Amino acid sequence: MRATTLASPARYRPLVFGVTRVELRGDDGGTQYLKADQPLGEYAARMTDRLLHWAQFAPDRTFMARRTKNADGSSGDWRHISYAEALASARNIGQALLDRGLDVDRPVVILSENDLEHALLALGCMYVGVPYCPVSPAYSTVSQDYDKLRHVLSTLTPGLVFASDAGRYGKAIAATVGADVEVAINSIAVDAYSVRASTTFEQLVSTPATPAVDAAMQATGPDTIVKFLFTSGSTKLPKAVINTQRMWCANQQQMRQSMPVLIEEPLVLIDWLPWNHTFGGNHNFGMTVYNGGTLYIDDGKPTPALMGETLRNLREVAPTVYFNVPTGFEAIALAMKDDAQLRKNLLSRVKMFFYAGAALAQPIWDSLHQTQEAEIGERIVMGTGLGMTESGPFGIFVTSPDVRAGDLGVPTPGLELKLVPVDGKIEVRYRGPNITPGYWRAPEATQESLDDEEFFCTGDAVTWIDKSNIHKGLKFDGRIAEDFKLATGTFVSVGPLRAKIIAAGAPYVQDAVLTGINLKEVGALIFPTAAVRQLAGLAPNAALQQILESSPVQAHFQKVADELSRTGTGSANRIARMHLMHEPPSIDKGEVTDKGSINQRAVLNHRDALVTALHGGTLPFAILAKAKA
Prior knowledge:
Blueprint: E1 4-5, E2 16-17, E3 22-26, E4 32-36, H1 47-57, E5 62-69, E6 75-82, H2 83-99, E7 108-110, H3 116-128, E8 132-134, H4 138-141, H5 147-156, E9 160-165, H6 166-176, E10 182-187, E11 199-200, H7 201-205, H8 211-219, E12 225-230, E13 240-244, H9 245-258, E14 268-271, H10 278-291, E15 294-297, H11 307-316, E16 321-324, H12 326-336, H13 340-346, E17 352-355, H14 362-376, E18 381-383, E19 385-387, E20 394-397, E21 407-411, E22 416-422, E23 425-431, H15 443-448, E24 456-464, E25 474-479, E26 484-485, E27 491-492, H16 494-505, E28 509-515, E29 522-528, H17 533-536, H18 544-548, H19 551-567, E30 575-580, H20 600-606, H21 608-616, E31 623-624
Parallel strand pairs: 5-15, 7-8, 7-9, 9-10, 10-11, 14-15, 16-17, 17-18, 29-30
Antiparallel strand pairs: 1-2, 3-4, 4-22, 5-6, 12-13, 19-20, 20-21, 21-25, 22-23, 23-24, 24-25, 26-27, 28-29, 30-31
Helix pairs in contact: 1-2, 1-10, 2-3, 9-10, 11-13, 12-14, 16-19
């Protein structure tokens, strides 16, 4: 494996990049094919082999840890589980699953958040070849109609449904889980629902393992389905992405080759990213198991209510690499300015930051670098790339520390990219061992996702960072399905324009949805960050609508709108009007995914009346940009 160090110690904390050169074939202007100039190395046949390896060679190393809960609900001390303990628990749980006759047609469904019981149940399923599916907790705890949860259950026909406690998940289970499906609960609350719980997690994990467990493990192989992960279902009902052992293990080896930092020293993660999503559940959970790492479960989240817990954990746990979404890094960048302990601990040994899920505004990036240079005299590389649930998810990764917002990089070893001209853009398509074999019980959807050469069609558009130097790789150019035409016939490229709005409005803009399909001009629905409250000068508990309609906030965004208008070069990239959204995007309606990214089409579909009022001039507190002189 060729590895090139492109970092200057005086500027960046040294980081090795595993892939820095690519091979391109095909005609310029037509379909082209891009791949790394190094082959994919050998990888494990199944993730279970890696669990067995670490349980043998590092039995006492912490596999995972999570804070306990005190009687008053506050967080307590860390509870650790070693690799030896994880393996023993997985074998016992595997026996319990075999006793129930569970299999691919009657898998395990996990409804609740990241916790140690969730992790052990997943390992137990993995060990004996029973597929499992972590489901978005929001489908049970936020949703009011449970339509997506019903769809998940009807698609998978589970034989066992697990949730962390009856108090939070009882109502959803009672409404959606058939009486013939066994329910397991970790903590049984004293309520009317508790009588439904026929099994406790303790019963599963205390089932004595027999030789049948190891025989079942030996019967699994690269083609064994290890889990199902559902897509976000932004415009349609979610699809169950099949994840095989080959797909997961190949992707972990690809990550090791693209990011050698993962194997330079024992890996330590502190992570909140949900396991029902591929970033948290495949990328980071899998990274931990495959590389013998230690994962501290962060019960925080980049929301005003929970970010404090994340910051508390980062003051205590020093990661070797750190993963988050843009809203998380935004909050960390703000907190590090005044929090000396946070700066000291977080930056003490971290070799790389990594973001995914949505665009990271360049001002946030710059703020992080400024703090790092002041604290440790060098910058931490901000890694990023592109992938999706169907690619395992890792697919494309940057090639050097010189990364700017929107950069993606080059394909990981073993993954071939097909660059196809579509409607004036270039769609990137994937083919490799880390690509899903399809969608569970949805053959038509599977076939629709593949082209005539069996490349997976992503719908993501890309362009070259520097066309004169292909080895710098690709940058993001939006989603092809999100782009639209104005009444003039001019195409609006949503991705770059959206990123421009977020950058211009930083740190007060979390996301933006562009409007104006078949109209004369482009508008924007602005979803603000929590920092916008600082502009208003109102009471901390003031309603968000009151905040957004206050004179200081309106005046600030008037300046943003005017600047965006001034720098626009034509109707397709000039923001003519905008509205600040006090109603957050809805998970039930598919407007937002678990990782926090917003689906443009879903928002436009469900807020059509608001968009009509914005462009019709009847929407109160709409902000109209000054016309260019």
